[in-house]
Design goal:
alpha+beta, 5-stranded mixed β-sheet, two-stranded antiparallel ribbon, 5 helices, globular
Length: about 160
């Protein structure tokens, strides 16, 4: 995400206030929470939150689609709302997570609400991201020997494989 400048929100609650039992209500629309620095998550005693998935630039991962119909469903907001209004919000977030992540290995930390996981049995080699209680966005990592290092993914389907 070189050159990408995500929004940084700095709540006014210090770590001491939160621990001492004082209540603080933070009204933030968050897709994913990130500490400012991985080595120093509580920089200066104030919790820094980075909203990574609200970045408008495309990340390192290339997202391809199995067919044009699926690509239109995943990229066109109107089509998404019209055909799959039940999962439209989550679908948009999962696609944005794919576009802004550096690799498959980063997905679970980049988009923790997506619950990205490798699939097994007849779906061996594919990965799934949660869209609803039953539906998953199914992707195939391409272009690397180790799927975790893959920076090219193909969106295969939106399916209830349970």
């Amino acid at each position: 995400m070189a050159g990408c400048r995500p929004k940084v929100v700095r709540p006014t609650v210090s770590l001491g206030q939160a621990v001492s039992g004082q209540r603080a209500l933070l009204r933030l629309r968050l897709v994913a929470l990130y500490a400012r620095d991985a080595g120093d998550p509580l920089h200066g005693g104030v919790i820094h939150i980075k909203i990574a998935l609200h970045c408008n630039e495309i990340g390192d991962m290339e997202v391809r689609y199995e067919d044009g119909k699926l690509e239109k469903l995943c990229t066109d907001e109107r089509e998404m709302r019209r055909k799959r209004s039940d999962i439209a919000d989550k679908l948009r977030l999962r696609i944005r997570a794919l576009e802004t992540a550096a690799s498959i290995a980063e997905l679970s930390s980049h988009d923790p609400l997506g619950k990205w996981h490798a699939l097994h049995a007849d779906l061996q080699g594919l990965w799934g991201g949660k869209l609803s209680a039953n539906y998953r966005l199914i992707i195939r990592p391409d272009g690397a020997d180790d799927p975790l290092d893959s920076v090219v993914v193909t969106v295969i389907d939106i399916d209830d494989y349970h």
